[in-house]
């Protein structure tokens, strides 16, 4: 039976269209020594669009997350390498159905109020209530999970086995008591435990955060007195990449994500960057009954026709990375020791044979038809992604050689929403999901379809994957990852997904350094002299 989920559709669109995803390491240049750090000043980071509503319980877009993550914290921090380290919790112990967190001493909110274990429990129970429809509900927490507090200890219990219980609930952004009591107050203000609190808002322009002087509980023992921290952080809305690149070179801003042609001059200027892995070349298929890719032979044929080296070089802007997992977002659960799959070699002759076998034969005009209808593929891609169009043209050229009629469509956010969740009028393309673990991945490939309120917008029905997903969900924490990796291999082997290539989506640094496990970690920012 397909599982349903209440993850907001908008949250999925942020993962699909924008795919600002997770961890890969920074570039090879060595980090500055601590003696190069200078405390004070303003750290300015560019965001591509106005974050809008700042309520972290409802945050959806990457730009909103990039801003609100400057003010809110979680029980567990994730490093650039996907490791889990203490943050608000000093320690935790877990089984498959329970995790016990012990909080650090002396945690307070930016308004000076006490942050307690009861505050944590209230947050988790709020997120577990489907009536509140938070961003976290349905993907990392649901009504099977509850939390209680006793002193500085929080006990989280699941009525079902949950091998990832600690990391799932431990990485939820937590709100202080006042904000949780009235979440509407969080739309234009912050109420968290962060080292920086929101102090000024100019919508569409800048969001300014000021360092507090009583912070003592950061990862790696960071406090308000740690050398190199800025006094303020400013998130500045810069919608044009070239403008952001100019500001980086001039030193007017300290951080911006640059994915297009401007990278060359930033590299030439000697700027370093922190990188996040991006499944830029992921291809998904609409397997809904009546669409061409409902036939696994067609999915296999058109996948193996693609020259991954040629197309990957273009779509990854010359920096293609072999995909090693369908999990690309921190905390990179079940990525180590994988994958258990290999992508097939390019084989145009075999692709033609598979299409013939599927009944799509070549006519005198060179076009493949079946029952009098041409094999027409609607290939969609993200219009703002600079490399998508050129790579799509290469795919079209190859498929045209096979007699396939390939139609290219450049999508904006509205088109993604309509095609994937309403009309279902698409076939394949550069469509990505970017989960941080296999359970979230399964909500796309083993969940309910959109007409049933679910996230399986590809209409995948893979019995082998479903069986392994169910087995993994009830396995012990020690066994679960091996089973999940077997399940992932089933998706690859059945061509439910074809990861042509990944690349690094870089956030460039100018006059400062920082860590970026998913978004810039504010406690890691160090200003340079």
Automatic annotation (TrEMBL):
Name of one Pfam family that matches: SBP_bac_5
Signal peptide positions on this chain: 1-24
Superkingdom, natural source: Bacteria
Keywords: Signal, Transport
Keyword Electron transport found: no
Record flagged with keyword Cell wall biogenesis/degradation: no
SUPFAM superfamilies reported in the protein's UniProt record: Periplasmic binding protein-like II
Solute-binding protein family domain ranges (all copies): 84-447
Similarity-based family: Belongs to the bacterial solute-binding protein 5 family.
Name of the featured protein: ABC transporter substrate-binding protein
Species in which this protein is naturally found: Microbacterium galbinum
